[in-house]
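Quarterly update from the structural biology core.
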Amino acid sequence: MSESIATVAFADLAGFTALTETHGDHDAVGIVETFEQMARSAVVWPARVVKLIGDAVMLAGPDAGDVVRSVLELARETHATPDFPLLRVGAHEGPVVDRGGDLFGATVNVASRLASIADPGQVLVTRSIAERVRADGIALVVERGQRSLRNVRDPVTVFELTEAESEVGDWRTDPVCRMRANP
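Predicted structure, tokenized:
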């Protein structure tokens, strides 16, 4: 086991349970397989896919900019794909414990909790990542205030990352499955 500082992000497919109920298990597995391929192709080295967890992926890397670029590319790709669920993303940086390639610790927990409170299509990060993204001009940064996260002692100031422009067009989000659909 080793300890280091890393940026950790979770990207979760919003509405996946409803999608499975509506479209069936086989279609859901196809979506997950496509999502896994998208995640692997979106990663900006030296960021990496740490693990796949059902309908979610955990990314991490030593540089916040690379991890953010990775999740933003993944969000763009899923957002632009017709009939694909939107992502909910959370990212945090800090100390992590590496155990055989898997990461553990409070940093991982905060990133996971941020993803769980994100709305479909939303990327939420903590202050240090927001400052880096703003300084490097990677994305637009909007402060969303302090939030209490489940099983995290202190409230966390949350920031949303957004793209300057959207290339999706007139697509709408299905309220049940959280998939992008052409009206």
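The longest strand covers residues 87-99.
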